[in-house]
Fold:
Amino acid sequence: MGLEEKLPSGFMLTTVEAVAGYARKGSMWPATFGLACCAIEMMATGGPRYDLARFGMEVFRPSPRQADLMIVAGRVSQKMAPILRQVYDQMPNPKWVLAMGVCASSGGMFNNYAVVQGVDHVVPVDVYLPGCPPRPEMLIDAILEIHDKAQHTKMGSNRQKQITELELEALSAKPLMDLPLLPSEAEHLPVRTPASTPLLFGDKKTIKAAKKEQKKADKEAARVEAGKAHG
Amino acid sequence: MAEMPENLPQPVRGFGTTFFTMFRKASTEQYPDEKVPTQPRFHGRHQLNRHPDGLEKCVGCELCAWACPADAIFVEGADNEAGERHSPGERYGAVYQINYLRCILCGLCIEACPTRALTMTNEYELADHTRESLIYTKEDLLAPLQGGMAMPPHSMVDGMSERDYYSGKVTSATPEQFAEVEARELAEEKAAEAKTDATIEAEKVASDIAKDEEQDLGGAA
Structure:
């Protein structure tokens, strides 16, 4: 956002990253954003018994422009979704999102047309927290996960490198259908994936013959293609 | 704490309460450092239980999935084959998944379970970074093996019926069951070794053929 993003990579940048990460996680201010019953638990977390002030997070900022963390506490209705997005957009970078409770994470038990089936349809989510509602300890646990993420956030050229890597990974990612099966699934379900070319077992002669057949077929197909192109 | 005397003026009583509170012990729980245990019946993560000899209690009846108000549970039962027994009786839960991003930890599934296979633990630290990782499968949910349990699949205790398992007549795995499991594991290990040998052989043949083909091409050119 400032000078720290322009630094060249090297030990200087990693040091700045560590210091900035420590500062970011040490005073991460959440936005005051309660939507339903989870917000009650969120308030309890800010109260004296669980005391978020121990993590420098006691100030729930009423203005998103002063907040670093959005805790989506409760079910998001379709009508609320654009407002949620606006609050997120108004927060300055770097910012984090915590989907608190099953409703915010996936729609939970409200699987209907009125409720957004997970806030990750609207904003990028860093940590999902199950529970209905999660108890304050669960929320603190999730917040500590976010702190960990903030501490290890990369910056400047290191961040660029990470983005490139992630993008490459995302581009080469396979659809869930094509992923290898879980051991429990593989045993009992009919195989969904097209089997990759199996290794041929047998002696040299038969394999060679099979390969020749294959090559012949390929050539024939190529010739037909070429003929079509000419015609 | 001692009550403020009634005869004091109101402001003194009020500030007095504030003042004396400073000397009381703070009620704050130091959560990540000191974890205060939950109530014993707290609804936390689920667990799939085992019989005392290690066989699974789940019979794959899907009643938990039917009871679930959030549609968070997916079960697929399968028949116990001879030599591949996971639970006493006819069927067992072959695929068992709970989506913790739907589950509201209400416990209706536990009430529905006819064999007490599904219960809840007090574990609550479930936060994670992706939606996929919060779908817990059978491997995540099954209770770990305790002393005297043998890893299924293995056969039932000799001379015991399914009913005997539920009336508590089975107390631990027998030596025969342990021997069976050991023999199976040994056979699996051997099969894996044999398979790798065959794969190595096939790869060698394939590379030889590739070399030959290269030579062929060289000759043709």
Observations:
- Helices of chain B lie at 10-21, 63-67, 108-112, 138-141, 162-166, 175-220.
